[in-house]
């Protein structure tokens, strides 16, 4: 029985401290501030996906002095996610941004319980009256980064370190490959799956595997700069992702698709405050500025820069769509006829690779 | 001078009471140094952690929600450890249990709750047990270390789930995302009131009582204890060690499988690739801190759940997730260290003195049963 006494004692100590805790757990937000919450899958210091969202949050704080923001990081897509969104709502957040796909069902659960709180779920597909989804057409800058990679590869093998075989990632690989092949029809893109969004060691190993297989450019759909560092160690080139990663491998990174969440966040928070917020599924592109291309590295030749800038202008002007037929799949079968543009529905459920991709997809 | 460790046997009552308090205080002290150095007010951080976990009914309910899988997996680990079997495969058995339950739920989308839920429990328990048996059979008959096999089987189970949600189980309505179809409402384990506390809590409490009774009052329980204390004596007394390994590991796997069933049915409501943030691994610490006692496991699970839940609350003060993990690790380390050191008396002895090596020898054997 001494064991239970011991445990009781621990509980007693804890309860005493709880008492102390209650004294200073008053309401969270300063009066007259508009509280906004973010829930992140990774660490704000990941230099990638979560970092880009957090830059957006910081942008909000700069632009909207009446906003007070809070965030929780490293929240897995488990039971924990539902609790942390509930906590944010209970703390008085008026609008909550959930920035990982796997939060989807939990967003819906919490949104049902807090009908007066607004929710925004990044990259999902379930909406409600008080829950919208948002995402960006990152495939546009991915296509452009493919042009750079295709122009600069000498071995005609490009490695692509990718997280999971989900439509978002497959779409990115395909857009990138179409960009590569638009300037270099002989180049191949080798996909290496890591089965993780965030794991610097695994990401690096995957990049090394691609380099060992002859790649001289590494692209990535991962949350950290680790694949870029692997390319740097071998003196090869890299196409980064998420944020401007130049500082991690200045002589390696040619460019890379980046996220620019800030303006969208500002717009939605303003709408929430003014009562004009409406649910919906936002999917903006380069024309909106939510996605863009990182600055070119010093090794990129002028003619390549010019080519990319011209294509970018066409995309922004709506004159060019990367997924315009003819497009063959990687078995050589024609999937998109000449002149046809793939629909958003097709893009959102992409489950096949375009010609030029070497890799496997589960089915 | 030389440090000497002498075993205390039995550990004095006073120490048993004082040691957890000391452990917590020591953890707070070290944490205070760390937090102050990082520029936070330690009292505020501790206060936030405690009020997040135990400060109001919502916090308490969520602490219990987090504790449920820890309880069932902790019981699984503790039971097998009673007979010196190291089941570090609760994570895998948890996933297989979730798989079994999900297979039933997905194949009977129109069945009423009274049909589908018992079948899900049955399938979860059976799948968890079967997964543990994969390690138990080679252990019993050929002596293959169950520590290695149960651990390796975790990865197999997790990749099996990955394969299913990316492949055959992928819901076409989910735009090819790695999710199974959602379960019917009938296949969701009920929750209590407005909380997320679900029937898994009852499963855990019933399991703890059943294990306690079985260990104390049945022939099987008696044999488990004897084998745990001295396999040679047990064999001499004519007990079948092989049979008991199989039975105990099967029950252990069944408990972890039940945890997976409850989590997928009550909390997730569909099969996904991320069901557990590592409950099966945390369960090893839980079982240990609970001294392998079923009720101890229940209580420690709640404290451990509180530590996990409270950790997130510290983030609201700006403490990074990594720092929170460090604090949590620090607390666990202090509790485990005080616990282990409590069994020894530490003395400084002048070198060359006769007693110098007394504490050192002959303790390996006595150690094994903790």
What's the layout of helices and strands?
The complex is a heterodimer of chains A (363) and B (370).
Chain A: H1 2-23, E1 34-39, H2 49-63, E2 67-72, H3 79-90, E3 95-98, H4 104-113, E4 118-122, E5 131-136, H5 139-152, E6 157-162, H6 167-183, E7 188-193, H7 200-212, E8 217-221, H8 226-233, E9 237-239, E10 253-255, E11 257-259, H9 262-274, E12 281-284, E13 291-293, H10 302-316, E14 327-328, E15 334-336, H11 344-348, E16 357-358
Parallel strand pairs in A: 1-2, 1-3, 3-4, 4-5, 5-12, 6-7, 6-8, 7-16, 8-9, 9-10
Antiparallel strand pairs in A: 11-13, 14-15
Helix pairs in contact in A: 2-9, 3-4, 5-6, 5-10, 7-8
Chain B: E1 2-7, H1 13-37, H2 42-54, H3 57-82, H4 90-107, H5 113-142, H6 146-166, H7 200-217, H8 219-229, H9 231-236, H10 241-268, H11 279-289, H12 294-315, H13 321-341, E2 344-349, H14 364-367
Antiparallel strand pairs in B: 1-2
């Amino acid at each position: 029985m001494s064991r239970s006494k011991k445990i009781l004692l621990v509980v007693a100590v804890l309860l005493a401290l709880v008492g102390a805790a209650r004294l200073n757990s008053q309401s969270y937000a300063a009066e007259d501030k508009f509280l906004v919450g973010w829930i992140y899958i990774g660490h704000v210091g990941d230099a990638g996906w979560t970092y880009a969202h957090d830059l957006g949050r910081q942008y909000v704080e700069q632009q909207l002095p009446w906003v007070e923001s809070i965030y929780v990081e490293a929240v897995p897509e488990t039971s924990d996610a539902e609790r942390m969104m509930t906590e944010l709502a209970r703390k008085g957040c008026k609008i909550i941004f959930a920035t990982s796909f796997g939060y989807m069902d939990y967003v819906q659960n919490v949104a049902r319980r807090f009908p007066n709180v607004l929710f925004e779920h990044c990259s999902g597909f379930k909406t409600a009256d008080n829950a919208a989804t948002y995402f960006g057409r990152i495939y546009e800058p991915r296509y452009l980064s493919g042009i750079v990679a295709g122009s600069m590869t000498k071995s005609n093998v490009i490695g692509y370190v990718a997280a999971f075989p989900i439509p978002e990632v497959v779409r990115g690989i395909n857009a990138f490959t179409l960009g590569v092949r638009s300037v270099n029809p002989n180049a191949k893109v080798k996909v290496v799956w890591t089965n993780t969004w965030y794991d610097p060691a695994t990401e690096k190993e995957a990049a090394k595997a691609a380099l060992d297989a002859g790649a001289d450019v590494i692209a990535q759909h991962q949350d950290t700069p680790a694949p870029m560092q692997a390319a740097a160690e071998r003196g090869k080139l890299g196409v980064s992702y998420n944020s401007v990663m130049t500082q991690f491998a200045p002589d390696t990174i040619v460019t890379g698709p980046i996220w620019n969440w800030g303006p969208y966040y500002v717009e939605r928070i303003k709408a929430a405050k003014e009562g004009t917020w409406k649910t919906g599924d936002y999917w903006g592109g380069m024309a909106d500025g939510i996605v863009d291309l990182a600055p070119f590295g010093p090794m990129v030749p002028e003619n390549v820069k010019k080519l990319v800038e011209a294509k970018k202008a066409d995309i922004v002007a709506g004159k060019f769509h990367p997924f315009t037929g003819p497009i063959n799949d990687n078995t050589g079968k024609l999937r998109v006829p000449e002149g046809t543009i793939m629909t958003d529905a097709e893009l959102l459920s992409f489950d096949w690779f375009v010609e030029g991709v070497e890799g496997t997809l589960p089915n | 001078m030389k440090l000497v460790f002498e075993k205390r046997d039995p550990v004095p009552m006073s120490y048993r009471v004082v040691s957890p308090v000391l452990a917590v205080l020591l953890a707070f002290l070290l944490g205070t140094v760390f937090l102050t150095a990082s520029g936070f007010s330690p009292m505020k951080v501790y206060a936030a952690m405690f009020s997040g976990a135990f400060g109001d009914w919502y916090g308490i309910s969520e602490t219990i929600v987090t504790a449920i899988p820890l309880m069932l997996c902790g019981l699984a680990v503790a039971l097998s450890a009673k007979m010196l079997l190291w089941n570090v495969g609760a994570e895998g058995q948890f996933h297989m249990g979730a798989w079994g339950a999900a297979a039933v739920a997905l194949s009977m989308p129109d069945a009423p709750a009274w049909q589908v839920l018992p079948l899900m429990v049955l399938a979860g328990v059976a799948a968890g047990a079967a997964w543990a048996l994969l390690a138990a059979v080679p252990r019993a008959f050929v002596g293959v270390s169950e520590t290695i096999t149960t651990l390796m089987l975790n990865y197999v189970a997790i990749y099996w789930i990955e394969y299913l949600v990316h492949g055959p189980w992928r819901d076409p309505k989910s735009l090819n995302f790695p999710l199974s179809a959602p379960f019917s409402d009938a296949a969701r384990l009920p929750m209590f009131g407005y909380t997320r506390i679900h029937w898994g809590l009852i499963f855990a409490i019933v399991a703890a009582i059943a294990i306690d009774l079985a260990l104390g009052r049945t022939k099987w329980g008696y044999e488990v204890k004897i084998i745990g204390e001295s396999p040679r004596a047990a064999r001499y007394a004519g007990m079948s060690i092989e049979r008991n390994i199989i039975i105990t590991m099967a029950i252990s796997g069944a408990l972890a499988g039940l945890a997976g069933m409850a989590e997928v049915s009550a909390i997730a409501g569909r099969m996904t690739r991320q069901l557990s943030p590592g409950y099966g691994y945390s369960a090893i610490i839980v079982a240990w801190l609970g001294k392998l006692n079923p009720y101890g496991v229940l209580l420690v699970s709640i404290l451990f759940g509180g530590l996990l839940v409270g950790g997130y609350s510290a983030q609201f003060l700006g403490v990074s997730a990594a720092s929170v993990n460090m604090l949590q690790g620090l607390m666990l380390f202090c509790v485990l260290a005080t616990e282990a050191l409590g069994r020894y008396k530490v003395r400084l002895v002048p070198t060359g003195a006769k007693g110098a090596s007394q504490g050192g020898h002959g303790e390996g054997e006595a150690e094994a049963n903790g």
